[in-house]
Design goal:
6-stranded mixed sheet, alpha/beta, 4-stranded mixed sheet, globular, 2 domains, 260 residues, 10 helices, 2-enoyl-CoA Hydratase, Chain A, domain 1
Length: 260
């Protein structure tokens, strides 16, 4: 049993993706990394979506990292490790570059590959009792460049060095101070808080949410913006949603955005 990736519609426009491998505290196998990539590619193509919530099954763990029981056959040497990393990084990119906003709802352990997955989401809401870390120093492993990049962008050099060199597990309040988390709530309120956040996102114009995610991600790239990219930041003025929002603001009514 290698676990599975589940998908469920919570409300129109809001989908929850669940990493389900409870027997191993939602450790992620190679097959699950592949399934996660496929799932998020499918979600990316669904223009009816407004927001995705990502969580681990149950309340014990968001994700306990990679499934170490597979290491003897999937990461026994550097050649195998690179092939394995391709599957992991494909899934992380699919989450990070999904056009729709993605919220991580975190309870319990969020460590190793589980934390790498969480930092690829756009917002991270965690329970007060959750714990974080990347303790790979105990395994004699390094984190590859492509997996480090989102972490460094989120917490900076100092935060990344603290996580990797000390290699301990730390709590939600410290994670919040470091910038790993968007907010911390009581453990039993994580799902409700994530859904509330998703509803706030879904109320807005979906094209605007997608554009803002695209623009922010692009600004992480040091290459200069070209003129077509700068022009795209004004494309919203030609949309039906802009006309709807502008009219609703003047009339003091709630807008009904359609994503056009």
């Amino acid at each position: 049993m290698t676990g599975r990736i589940l998908r469920e519609e919570l409300e129109p426009g809001i989908v929850r993706v669940i990493v389900d491998n409870r027997e191993k505290r939602n450790a992620i196998s190679v097959a699950m990394w592949r399934e996660l990539a496929d799932t998020f590619r499918t979600l990316d193509a669904d223009l009816g979506l407004r927001c995705v919530i990502l969580r681990g099954a149950g309340d014990e763990a968001f994700g306990a990292g990679a499934d170490i029981s597979e290491f003897a056959t999937t990461r026994a040497n550097s050649v195998q490790a690179r092939h394995y990393a391709e599957k992991v990084q494909e899934a992380l990119r699919a989450v990070r570059h999904c056009r729709h906003p993605v919220i991580a709802a975190i309870r319990g352990l969020c460590v190793g590959g589980g934390l790498e997955l969480a930092v690829c989401t756009d917002l991270r809401i965690a329970g007060a009792g959750s714990r974080f870390g990347i303790p790979v120093k105990r395994l004699g492993l390094t984190v590859a460049y492509d997996e480090l990049e989102p972490l460094v962008e989120l917490v900076g050099r100092g935060g990344a060095m603290r996580i990797l060199l000390e290699g301990d597990l730390f709590g939600a309040e410290e994670a919040l101070r470091m910038g790993l988390l968007t907010r911390v709530v009581a453990d039993e309120q994580v799902d409700a808080a994530a859904l509330e956040s998703a509803r706030r996102i879904a109320e807005g114009a979906p094209l605007v949410a997608r554009w803002h995610k695209k623009f922010v991600n692009r600004l992480m790239d040091p290459r200069p913006l070209d003129e077509s990219e700068r022009a795209e930041s004004y494309a919203c003025f030609d949309t039906e949603d802009f006309r709807t929002g502008f009219r609703s603001f003047l009339q003091r009514t709630a807008p009904r955005f359609v994503g056009r």
